[in-house]
Each structure stands twice: as C-alpha cells, then as structure tokens.
Amino acid sequence: MSSDYKALEFPPLKNDLILRAARGESTERAPVWVMRQAGRYLPEFRAIRAEQDFFKVCRTPSLACEVTLQPIRRYTGLIDASIIFSDILVVPQAMGLVVEMVPGKGPTFPEPLKTPEDFSRLNEHVDVDKELGYVCDAITLTRKELKGEVPLIGFCGAPWTLFAYMIEGGGSKFFTASKTWLFKYPEESKALLERTAHVCADFLVAQVKAGAQLLQVFDSWAGELSPSDYRIFSLPYCQLIARKVRSALDELGIPQVPLILFPKGANWGHKEFAETAGYDVLGLDWVNEPAAVRQVVGNKVALQGNMDPNVLYGGRDAIERAVEKMAKEFKTDGKPVGWIANLGHGITPGVDPDDLKWFFECVHKYSAKSN
Ligand SMILES: Cc1c2[nH]c(c1CCC(=O)O)Cc1[nH]c(c(CCC(=O)O)c1C)Cc1[nH]c(c(CCC(=O)O)c1C)Cc1[nH]c(c(C)c1CCC(=O)O)C2
Predict the structure, then answer these.
(1) Which of 4, 108, 122, 305 has the greatest number of C-beta atoms within 10 Å?
(2) Which of ligand 1's atoms lies nearest the C-alpha of 171?
C-alpha cells in the first residue's frame, strides 16, 4: 500500500448508494447528485464569491472544502454524493497557460494556443503533485469534514474539451479555431491531446490517493465532433485516461474506484463507449431516451442522468412529472439497477434552491423500487 494513500485515515462511509449503483447493482432507490451542485444558484456560494476570486476559491483548500460542503449541508439526507469544488481548467493552468474567470464572460485564456509553435509555452513535464497539490489538499480536507456522510467525487476535463478551451481561449459557438487545428495539424493535435491525457490521468490518480472515491471525466464538447472525428481525437484519449488510472491504482495497491465518462452530446456512441471506453458509468444528457440507451448498452455500464436542467425553472408540477417519467424510463423491470440520478448537464445560476430540493425529494419517491 502506498504510504501516501489517505483512505485509512478517513471516517467510515455511511452512504454507499452511488458506489453500488456505479457498479451496476440494483439499489433500494437511485442515488442522486447534480453537476455544479456547488454553484451560483446557492446564496451561500454567491456570498463567498462576492469576496473571493473564482480560482482563489479553487486554490484555497479551506474555501474549496467549505463550498463543496454547502449543498451537502443544505440537502442533508437528500443528496448522495459530493463533488470537489474545482474546475476542469486547472489542468491547462498546470500545463502552463493562464486562465482567468471573467465576470459575465466565463473562463478566458488571455493567450490561447495559436499554432503548434506555441507548444514551447507549455511545461515540458507537469508534476501534478506540485502544480495541482492544492486540489488534492482540498480533497483530503473535504473527506475528513464529510465525516463519511456521502462519497466524494474527483474529476477532470476530457482532453478534447480541454484542447478546445486551450485553443479557442474560452467558450465557443462554432469551434473554428480548435477544429482548424484538428484538420490542419492532425499530428500535432494528437500530440497535444496525448500530452493532456497523461496529465489528466496522473491528476486523477493523485485525487484518488488524496481521498476521491469516484472519478468523472467531463467531455462537455463531445457532441461537437463527428463520430469519425470523435474516434480519432477524443475517444482514444478518454481510453488512455481510464487505462492509465486503473493500472496506476493497481500498481500502487490502491482499490479501484468507479470511473464515469460524460460525453455530452455524443449520443450516437453509447454502445461503442460502453464496450470500448473503459468506464463504469456513462453520463447521459437530456437528448436521450434512457430506456433506448439501456437497451443498446445492456448491463455493460451504469447510467447517470438525465433531466433537462431547465425543467428546474418549470415549477414543482413540471419537476415532479419529469422525474416520474425519467425514473420510469431508467428502471429495469420497475427497479433502479445501475442508475445514478442527475441532471443532463450542470445546474444553472437562476434556479431556486428549494426547487432543487423538490427535485431530490421526487427522485427519492419515484426511483424507489415500488414506485
Ligand atoms: C466546461 C466546464 C468548465 N468547468 C467544468 C466544466 C465541465 C462541466 C460542464 O460541461 O458544465 C466543471 C466544473 N466546474 C465547476 C465544478 C465544481 C463542482 C460541481 O459543483 O459540479 C465542476 C465539476 C465549478 C464552477 N465553474 C464555474 C462556476 C461558476 C463561476 C463563478 O462562480 O463565477 C462554477 C461554480 C465557471 C465555469 N467553468 C467552466 C465554465 C464553462 C464555467 C461557467 C462560466 C459562466 O457561466 O460564467 C469550464
């Protein structure tokens, strides 16, 4: 056992529902959490952000821990997982690029990568313990503070999604700059994707050593690529991450943790991902019919998702009806089997926190075996 593996120091876990569902097991009800559950819809989060820069919160373990725990405290007994407060863009920062969170604009790279010559601006070798040790410290502190209430999820962005940010310099509508790279400099693009994948894998292993109990890879821009381009420029690097994480954990003598892949929008590929990506769970967005996806993936993977986050603006009746329908579609023979309830993407800033509470209550009710 690696001497810096922290698991033995933590309080025993009291709620392992999400771990069982991630392994594909039948559960008494579906576990539930939501992407971006620590975020601007919470007044207690906005109060911290009014005082502190976004990346300052990420880099200060006590603040990251506090913000991670906010939804857990508010929704005690209703929420089945925490996710460490951080951002996918901490990896490009560790690789040597500057990223700022600009109010009203979102994440911004003042100097994105323009051509492969800009590789010289990236760090040759990234020591994740040194560059991203603050995330690991936040994870260790949060595991202690959670007192075993619910498991803690670690995460990173998928190489293609990070590549798009590094080249576009921020969010994008048409992905012209990043796709220009794919088609004009395919070999250099693959080199950058591979380099990023190694940093992601090392970072995920470090997160597990620090105390993360599940890992999610966010491929938020998966749906921007054609299936054949996805097979060249994204899937191999998601596979590399899964393989490298699993073999590193084995080598270190650390028990495996469930891996979740969220290939948002790549809804043509679930069967292929279930069979070849190497993940335990696939995240679905709301443009999917859960029963149809279950049919094509069989019991190879667990599924996570998938209510449209905007339903949370529709009031209690709309939320209840959508959850009832979602539960019915995800269940196998009337039971939740290998299903983690979630939204189909992150929760948005304008949601009333009490409406999210109602969403959790409806999931508890409608996902239970008898409902
Ligand atoms: C693409 C992406 C990013 N970051 C992330 C993704 C993948 C998930 C997805 O597709 O939504 C992942 C992420 N970002 C954040 C988390 C924290 C954990 C959680 O509660 O889920 C996670 C898992 C915090 C955050 N990350 C961000 C916020 C809000 C910013 C703020 O506090 O000002 C939070 C809570 C900022 C961010 N960071 C990023 C974007 C697009 C934005 C939003 C910009 C905006 O709307 O202003 C990059």
Answers:
(1) 305
(2) 41
Selecting among 59, 75, 80, 87, the annotated active-site residue is 87
Tell me the one-letter amino acid at 314: G
Quote the mean pLDDT of the chain.
Answer: 97
CA pair distance 209, 214, nearest whole angstrom: 12
H helix or E strand, kind and range, residue 303: strand 302-307
Question: Does residue 79 lie in a domain region?
Answer: yes
Matching residue, tokens 């209430």: 149
Inform me whether the pLDDT recorded for 146 exceeds 60: yes
ipTM of the shown complex: 0.93
pLDDT(122) > 80:
yes
Note whether residue 2 is domain-resident: no
Residue 246 annotated among the catalytic residues of the structure: no
Asked if omega into 306 is within 30° of 0 (cis), the reply is yes
Sign of the CA dihedral 69, 71, 74, 76?
A: negative
Q: Whose CA is nearest to atom 45 of ligand 1?
A: 106
Annotated catalytic residue 243: no
What are 66's two structure tokens?
């506090």
Determine whether the shortest distance from the Cβ of 101 to ligand 1 is under 6 A. yes
- Residue 5: the pLDDT is 76
Inter-residue contact 33 to 146 (CB < 8 Å): no
CATH number, domain with residue 326: 3.20.20.210
State residue 257's pLDDT score.
98
Structure confidence at residue 1 as a pLDDT band (50, 70, 90): very low
